[in-house]
Amino acid sequence: MLKLSRRAQRIPASPIRKLHPLAEAARGRGVDVINLNIGQPDLPTPPEFFDAAARFGSPVLAYSPSQGIPAFIDGLIYYYAQNGMTVRPEEVMVTIGGSEAITMALLCCANPGDHVLTFEPFYTNYYSLAMMAGIQVDVCPTRIENGFRLPSQRTISKAITPKTRAIIACNPSNPTGAVLTPDEIEGLRRIARSKGLFIIADEVYREFCYDSPFNSFWHCEGLEDHLIIADSLSKRFSACGARLGSLLTRNKGLQQAFLRFGQARLSAGTFDQHAALPLLRLGRDYYDRVVGEYRKRRDTLVEALQMIPGVRCQKPEGAFYLLVDLPVDDSDKFCAWMLSDFSHEGATVMLAPANGFYATPGKGLTEVRIAYIVNTDRLRQGVRALQVALAQYPGRRGGA
User: Fold this and answer.
1) Which of 17, 27, 190, 319 could be bridged to 172 by S-S, CB 3.0 to 4.6 A?
2) Alpha-carbon distance 204 to 334, whole Å?
3) So what's the architecture of 48-281 in CATH?
4) pLDDT digits (tens, 9 = 90+) for 147-157
5) Distance (Å, rounded) from C-alpha 293 to C-alpha 310?
6) Which whole number is the average pLDDT over 79-95?
7) Average pLDDT rounded to a whole number, residues 275-302
8) Helices assigned H by DSSP within 116-163
9) Where, residue-wise, is CATH 3.40.640.10 in the chain?
């Protein structure tokens, strides 16, 4: 057999998607599987997307400019302006989703063998995308007990090595739901400037802040050469399948590098950009309605989880995820067991084992990530099934 590359052999399975075959098998047995494992919103994509798609009249679906269609870039600039951000056309790069945005940022910031620093637990694809680029991910731990607040500037600085090239900060956080405070952002700004590092700010969930205003790194003074913002249309518009994102930077060298990388992959989807353009001009009432729905879901889920003995979680401040510590021996085994051996009133729950959101061996072994991307009735049904599953699970800590 021909030998695959080391990166092909080492890249991990997604903790978010790896249980999919078990879920399909459960559905094949007639079990109702409640998907709380993946950040696929269930709210309808705004009709403006489909209306614009229906109006697309070009006889040829051609490549678009590598930077993005000018009208779409103008739409992004308008969208950011509504969020208090002044962005120029040359500072924008349209990407094929947020994942390409992160990939381009990593490839432009670091060489093979270099390191990037992020905060554990972290979005699992940071690890996979960095590995594909030959970049090592180092971590600073955060803790469920204090709501996953960032460690001190001193602790963060101690985690930086001579090979560190960038800090990745997800704000609001996937998977924890933590929202960075102005002081935390200022601390990272100081570190980046003093250590000569890039900041890759993943701000995909900027709208989803429930208890305090969102603060963007874009407003930080003195980061003009240091800052890259990665963004995506997927979550805020329930348009994950459109695969559209963006990169923002004021660094002229990065702007040119992003364009060259964009030319190498030709272009983002022409049809997707035309269809998504009206979404960028939706009014405040759209966002208020969507965020209000997710806030209601968050409150419903946390209240229900806190009624289960042995379950620990903090109320997330943003995004639409929370990490939950369960009274089980191994969340990987528990999540698989719920799909293969358990149902309650004909239903079971699909969760994401949290060990894949950690780089430190042994961390997250009893935790799961829950995505509250279904309505409140469905969430209550899922938590009821989870409570019964915990009572029946043979590997429950402290006995059944």
Assistant:
1) 319
2) 30
3) 3-Layer(aba) Sandwich (3.40)
4) 999 999 999 99
5) 28
6) 98
7) 98
8) 124-132, 153-158
9) 48-281
